[in-house]
């Protein structure tokens, strides 16, 4: 359905997207996973015909969109990272405005607005100005605007950034229902759990490049010979972290919130040595968990750093 072929984007001398290849089949849910600054939003802008690539091409149903982007635009819904709404208008007025842009009118427009308001859970707030909405409600309305014309492909760029956990859960459940109903989805995020929940296949992007792609199982197989030990304690000082790295030179040691994580080969038996190193440093370990391989481990294995570093 949608293909990127050797897609590249430069801004002056800086290469932001480095000749990537990506494809999306009808009915698929595909994730584009990577840290902030990886080039995801620029890629989305090129795929949706908003930004011209420096080189390469985007194909819609095997036809280049360079000369005829309208064929794609008519059937594409885009949820941008930034809120794109009119704060002085009500929820209903915003939807009617965007519906008219898509060419909807009359009873068809009214029916689509009603359906979308229900789908995004804002029917009871339809007459309220958007400036009175919470961040999560604005995000939901942003999604609703992209669904009005019944797109066959939905592109979502970090749709849960900066919102509370309850709103985030509502949005993810809404998107999951769309996927279950057969919506073709391209979903970008730096939140691993969102991509794992929603997507059949995943492209991992870093510093403008696609560094791996496949199903969740295929990607995790890249680190099937590895293990990650999660350590928790009352205090985990930097000296302890440095000691772990010294004693396990082939491993990667990094912090994640209140924990220290140690990624290393499965054949090693690290726990007795870890507790001995902790004792030498006066550290009390309260929890040591051997974690199954995750997409975070895949990114760490490929780049040597955590996804959100």
Automatic annotation (TrEMBL):
<dbReference type="InterPro" id="IPR025302">
    <property type="entry name" value="DrrA1/2-like_C"/>
</dbReference>
<keyword id="KW-0067">ATP-binding</keyword>
<dbReference type="Pfam" id="PF13732">
    <property type="entry name" value="DrrA1-3_C"/>
</dbReference>
<dbReference type="InterPro" id="IPR027417">
    <property type="entry name" value="P-loop_NTPase"/>
</dbReference>
<keyword id="KW-0813">Transport</keyword>
<dbReference type="Pfam" id="PF00005">
    <property type="entry name" value="ABC_tran"/>
</dbReference>
<keyword id="KW-0547">Nucleotide-binding</keyword>
<dbReference type="GO" id="GO:0005524">
    <property type="term" value="F:ATP binding"/>
</dbReference>
<protein>
    <submittedName>
        <fullName>ABC transporter ATP-binding protein</fullName>
    </submittedName>
</protein>
<dbReference type="InterPro" id="IPR003593">
    <property type="entry name" value="AAA+_ATPase"/>
</dbReference>
<feature type="domain" description="ABC transporter">
    <location>
        <begin position="2"/>
        <end position="232"/>
    </location>
</feature>
<dbReference type="InterPro" id="IPR003439">
    <property type="entry name" value="ABC_transporter-like_ATP-bd"/>
</dbReference>
<dbReference type="InterPro" id="IPR017871">
    <property type="entry name" value="ABC_transporter-like_CS"/>
</dbReference>
């Amino acid at each position: 359905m949608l293909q990127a072929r050797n897609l590249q984007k430069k801004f002056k001398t800086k290469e932001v997207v480095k000749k990537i290849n990506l494809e999306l089949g009808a009915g698929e849910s595909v994730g584009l996973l990577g840290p902030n600054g990886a080039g995801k939003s620029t890629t989305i802008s090129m795929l949706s015909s908003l930004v011209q690539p420096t080189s390469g091409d985007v194909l819609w149903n095997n036809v280049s969109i360079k000369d005829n982007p309208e064929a794609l635009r008519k059937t594409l819904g885009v949820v941008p990272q930034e809120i794109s709404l009119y704060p002085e208008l009500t929820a209903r007025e915003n939807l009617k405005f965007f519906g008219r842009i898509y060419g909807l009118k009359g009873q068809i427009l009214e029916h689509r607005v009603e359906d979308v308001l229900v789908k995004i859970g804002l029917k009871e707030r339809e007459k309220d100005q958007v400036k009175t909405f919470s961040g999560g409600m604005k995000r939901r309305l942003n999604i609703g605007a992209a669904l009005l014309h019944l797109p066959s492909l939905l592109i979502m760029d970090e749709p849960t950034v900066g919102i509370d956990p309850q709103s985030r859960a509502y949005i993810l459940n809404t998107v999951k229902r769309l996927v279950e109903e057969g919506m073709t989805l391209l979903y970008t995020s730096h939140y691993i759990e969102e991509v794992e929940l929603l997507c059949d296949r995943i492209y991992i992007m870093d510093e403008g490049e696609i560094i791996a792609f496949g199903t969740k199982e295929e990607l995790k197989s890249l680190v099937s010979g590895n293990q990650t030990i999660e350590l928790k304690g009352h205090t985990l000082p930097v000296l302890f972290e440095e000691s772990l790295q010294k004693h396990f030179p082939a491993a990667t040691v990094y912090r994640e919130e209140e924990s220290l994580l140690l990624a290393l080969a499965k054949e090693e038996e690290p726990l007795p040595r870890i507790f001995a190193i902790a004792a030498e440093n006066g550290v009390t370990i309260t929890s040591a968990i051997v974690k199954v391989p995750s997409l975070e481990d895949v990114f760490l294995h490929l780049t040597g750093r955590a996804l959100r570093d």
